[in-house]
């Protein structure tokens, strides 16, 4: 083969090789282990995942950013779902019921991101376990109609240490403005009393948010309390010991003036003591005992208790000769049977009884002594 032909052959082979290399290098092979893109949706919990000692009344919610929930549930250890509400945009779910003490809860469901990718909703948390759960009661009860001296009273089964926290959890609304204050009468009782008597026909609503509330020393409230009640007409008993009369004022007008006998004036143990009291209880029949003065199982009718020291307004027909003339009872206010019945029928629990002119006064130490304290003394018993 001539030299020129050989050179031509090598040139052709070189050109073909270059073309083959160009063809084989016009693209790059797909990567074999490329990671898929991360979902854009992000789920956040309140309380955080694996949280412990959560207050069962704390806000419990879950939110998703750059996405919305496709399904969502919060369940307790027994598999029961907690009631909750999903926002209109589908991005926030919040519990609408309080949780239990000492319980564990689990999240489940999934969110769909703006990129169409799914994100699981999962996690757990637990609520606090109190050392002690304390029960409370509230008075007056729902739908009651009471007198103008009636306090609102919240009583606890155990002493309360953090009184300020509990007092902040107590709220009330009145149909007309009323000036008043809470006062702690003991470690187990807090009362609200108006500065002056309630205006007649006031409607009152009270809420005590005690569930989940710390009482101090690891104790917590058992349940929330509430009550709605009404003040009735204004009725005040004017019990001036020296007059031997009992006067009833209703809505500012005198409606009755009964002959009465008060406690023996010269024996401090038998005085009807001075003070502002209120009707605490009404019983058509009351069995009375006073071992100190030698009587037992004495049956009296139309009895309105106004002190846990033992004072009542009641019938004592056997003492008719003294009524309106002599004070000779053992501390109660005696009336005739007819007058006692008339007064009994007119009285509401919470009506004030104002005793004046006695040789002694009642110390503020028995169950209901709200009106035996001056306003200055009362407000100093507030924890706030």
From TrEMBL:
<dbReference type="GO" id="GO:0071972">
    <property type="term" value="F:peptidoglycan L,D-transpeptidase activity"/>
</dbReference>
<dbReference type="GO" id="GO:0008360">
    <property type="term" value="P:regulation of cell shape"/>
</dbReference>
<dbReference type="GO" id="GO:0016746">
    <property type="term" value="F:acyltransferase activity"/>
</dbReference>
<keyword id="KW-0449">Lipoprotein</keyword>
<dbReference type="GO" id="GO:0018104">
    <property type="term" value="P:peptidoglycan-protein cross-linking"/>
</dbReference>
<keyword id="KW-0808">Transferase</keyword>
<dbReference type="Pfam" id="PF03734">
    <property type="entry name" value="YkuD"/>
</dbReference>
<dbReference type="InterPro" id="IPR050979">
    <property type="entry name" value="LD-transpeptidase"/>
</dbReference>
<keyword id="KW-0573">Peptidoglycan synthesis</keyword>
<feature type="domain" description="L,D-TPase catalytic">
    <location>
        <begin position="235"/>
        <end position="356"/>
    </location>
</feature>
<dbReference type="InterPro" id="IPR005490">
    <property type="entry name" value="LD_TPept_cat_dom"/>
</dbReference>
<dbReference type="Pfam" id="PF17964">
    <property type="entry name" value="Big_10"/>
</dbReference>
<protein>
    <submittedName>
        <fullName>Lipoprotein-anchoring transpeptidase ErfK/SrfK</fullName>
    </submittedName>
</protein>
<keyword id="KW-0133">Cell shape</keyword>
<dbReference type="InterPro" id="IPR038063">
    <property type="entry name" value="Transpep_catalytic_dom"/>
</dbReference>
<feature type="signal peptide">
    <location>
        <begin position="1"/>
        <end position="29"/>
    </location>
</feature>
<dbReference type="GO" id="GO:0005576">
    <property type="term" value="C:extracellular region"/>
</dbReference>
<dbReference type="GO" id="GO:0071555">
    <property type="term" value="P:cell wall organization"/>
</dbReference>
<keyword id="KW-0961">Cell wall biogenesis/degradation</keyword>
<keyword id="KW-0012">Acyltransferase</keyword>
<comment type="pathway">
    <text>Cell wall biogenesis; peptidoglycan biosynthesis.</text>
</comment>
<feature type="active site" description="Proton donor/acceptor">
    <location>
        <position position="314"/>
    </location>
</feature>
<feature type="active site" description="Nucleophile">
    <location>
        <position position="332"/>
    </location>
</feature>
<dbReference type="InterPro" id="IPR041280">
    <property type="entry name" value="Big_10"/>
</dbReference>
<keyword id="KW-0732">Signal</keyword>
